[in-house]
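[audit] Reproducing an earlier prediction to check determinism. Same input, same settings, fresh worker. If the tokens differ from the archived copy the diff job will pick it up downstream; this log only records the rerun itself.
[audit] input (144 residues):
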Amino acid sequence: MVSLAWLDADAPFSVMPDIDRTITLVDGPGFTLDVAGQALPVGTLFVPTRFDGGVTTRCAINGPSRVLNVMTQRGTFRHSVAILDRSGPIVPGGGPACVAVLLDGQGVIGGVDLGRLDAVHLDGIAELTLSAGGTVAVVTVELI
């Protein structure tokens, strides 16, 4: 699953056994996750943070923040989140389970302009072009 979510209050995360999670801050001052008693600060934009969705996790926010979430079933799938930050053309790798989310700047795929936080399925897409300062998250999910 790939989604965007607002974190606007301190709260527990749902415990999801056998789920691998990656969370990436896309807006706001960030937060600290308490993952099974270990502090995991998430305060820098566009830096993916992996954690086990099956353990008790609590979020303490520094202020309202928006995140990109990626979750997959451990043992069946694996995922990666690559952050590409530059201008010009990028060959994203594509494939049937590959999605690009424009995090900042402007992007063009197949002649279509993308706005901030727009997502596109990359299957069959040969090239993604980012404007100066553009940043994109490329999420790949693989069957194990």
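[audit] rerun output stored. Observation attached for the diff report: The radius of gyration is 16 Å.
[audit] end
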